Amino acid sequence: MRKYILVILAAFVLISCKQQVADPQVEAAQSLTARILPTQVQNIDFTCEPGEEDVYRFEAKDGRLSITANNANSMAMALNDYLKDYCKTTVTWYVEDEVPQPAVLPATNGVVTRKALCEHRFFLNYCTFGYTLNWWKWNQWERLIDWMALNGVTMALANTGQEAVWQRVWRKHGMTDEQIRAYFTGPSYLAWHRMVNIDKWNGPLPQDWIDGQVELQKKIIARETSLGISPILSAFSGHVPEQLQAQYPEADIRKLSDWANYGDKYNCWYLNPVEPLFQQIADEFLAEQKALFGQATHIYGLDLFNEIDPPCITPEYLNKVSQLTWESLQKSDPDAIWLQMAWTFYHDSDIWSNEIIQAYLDPVPKGRMLLLDYYCEMAEIYRTTDRFYGHDYIWSYLGNFGGNTCITGNTKDVAARLDRVYAEGGENFKGVGGTLEGFGVSPFMYEYILDRAWEKKKEVSDWILDVADRHAGVADENFRAGWKQLYEKVYITDHVSLDGSLMTSLPTMESNPRRFLYSIKPQIPYNNADLMKVWDLFTQNRLSETPSFRFDCVNVGRQYMENRFHLDFFQLMDAYRKKDLARAEALVAEMTELMDDVNRLISTHHYYLCGKWNKEARSWGRTKAEQDYYEFDARSIISIWGGKLSHYANRCWNGILDDVYKPTWVNFFDLILYSIKTDTAFNYARFMTLASYFEWNWVTAHQQYISEPVGDSYDISRELYQKWSAR
Q1: Beta bridge partners of 301
Q2: To 10 degrees, what angle do helices 444-451 and 460-472 make?
Q3: Which residues are registered as beta bridge partners of 373?
Q4: If you placed Cys at 69, which of 34, 56, 168, 328 could pair as Cys (CB 3.0 to 4.6 Å)?
Q5: What does the pLDDT look like over 302-321, one tens digit per residue?
């Protein structure tokens, strides 16, 4: 209640100031401040000094903060830097995380000035719209957009509401609404439909969903634009419904290759850009998109053949396709810039040789294509393609696949790679970005990437100590030591696809490889005892009630126990091979106990609640049938997925841990122990039958789980630390 009273008071203050606020840049910055810092908005003054470079300066004295910058985006960045450096405050991307309000604005001892080092700061991934953003309402988007502005983001994918545009287009080509909605996938899978990977899966898409997303997108675009964030919309890539083949039998419309073993029924269809129909659809789409959402930007996300085979794999063919696609886009919008993921060059490197990449890029004039080097912590494509053969590019950190809940990220290596791209990236290096597939992790790595888009304040080893201070809300010796230990000994490997937790994977015997196990090594990449030490340091004292402090206490404890489970598994396999029943029974007991304790700990924080996810999905439905459909879709994407992607999301969440993974593991344990006791082979067929039952039963059921945290994060974390450190 107190939070909402503060927001209302801030709104009154803001209204009273509006007579004095003539500049829309200042007004946007004031509005953001009222949302984030309602108790102090009346003590913060903004001044806009327009200029070509993004730059800010601020000074605080006598309880007032003055910020001067070239636009609202730089003002927001200045505000956040002040909050982080002087108020020890973290603003997360979740609206559920309240922002600590300083009683007095601390003085700065002079003017602080900082300038941006690059033009573009990019955020989001197409997949984020399937793994995190699918069910968000406006209040959640509002906080995310504020977070982006506070971290200086200037470009963000804006895919929400796209299906309404396509519905208008396909109606013009003789398709009924029923056919169009059946062509779309379910809400959670629309990201892969938009990337031209699958059609129809979990469809048809309800009309209420399509209409509701339009209104949401209008708000997203308006807010992002006001804060200097260019919303990146889409353009026509050649992806068409299968029905158009019958409508235009003379046109070259062909089925594309299978994606992720979904099967022929769900393959996408592609219209050859040489056809006159291609330009017609391209024009119609951009016209309808503009009619619905306005002309917020001239940068369009356009990706051909992402994770699928082109109809023909030759330099000549891909050069021609690229040329015709570019010409079509330019005719539709003469000011267009083509934003292209470089992910496909990495993912399908057996197809995309340097010769083919260059042939594909060459038709687009320099300055009119912007490449997202998508996964630079692992593979910097700019370094192997002569800086994308002169085309502008953005260095991006991916950092998380599927919203996996795991502690990964090589902070030192990322810092070194950023140093190198700033030194060697060339004039066509235009910015940095974060391309995470899902949230549910600490934002600190993405905050670091975006912070490095500005003049360097300090080395990463010192920057990490600032993270500790603002997460705790105070400068605490133990908490700082814990974060230093994380930086030096735990954050030493990058996250890779399929690199999830064994506890939240489907178990297997070594002779029967099953999802994930082939990527999980017998040893974790760091000493789990080092993480135990961090857990101790983090829970030495209750430092604050900040959301980030609570999250750190839960996150480290969760990871330690998951790692211990992981190491126990390989000991269990050894006991199984040696027919050591007593040892196997002891390990089974400990692993079962670890699952229960992890579930108890994660239940204390909203980052880890499947009930919250399900509740948000159901909130989009007007009828019970719609609500059940949305919940089915929401459960599917984080479990069975589809095709060969079972349990790709790999999340340690209350609800799926206790009702899918635990019963599956208990079944596995029972069969292991029975095999040892009877000296018979492990019954893999029985195990898989029951595992599939647990999965499907959970996806199709509608059990209610907690959607709000239960228990005290700090107290339970400390209690569990003491328990497991004593063993």
Answers
A1: 234, 339
A2: 130
A3: 395
A4: 56
A5: 999 999 999 999 999 999 99
Among the listed residues 441, 419, 413, the one whose alpha carbon sits nearest the alpha carbon of residue 432: 419
Q: Which amino acid is at 660?
A: V
**CA–CA gap between residue 499 and residue 516 (Å, rounded):** 7
pTM over 0.85: yes
* 32 Cα distance to chain centroid: 23
* Percent of the chain whose pLDDT exceeds 70: 95
pLDDT above 60 for 14 = no
pLDDT at 513 over 50: no
Count of H-run helices and E-run strands, the chain:
29, 15
> Which of 556, 551, 565, 571 minimizes the C-alpha distance to 596?
565
Lookup: tokens for 30: 């004031």
Strand pairing of 55-61 and 112-115? antiparallel
Rounded CA gap, 397 and 435, in Å? 6
Structure tokens at 524: 């974790």
Q: Pick from 442, 429, 343: which is nearest to 393 by CA?
A: 429
pLDDT greater than 60 at residue 8: no
**Mean predicted confidence (pLDDT) in 425-453:** 96
- 700's tokens: 């199709």
Please state, in angstroms and rounded to a whole number, the distance separating the CA atoms of residues 698 and 692: 10
Residues 6+ apart with CB under 8 A from 147: 91, 92, 93, 443
Whether 158 and 184 have beta carbons less than 8 Å apart is answered as: no
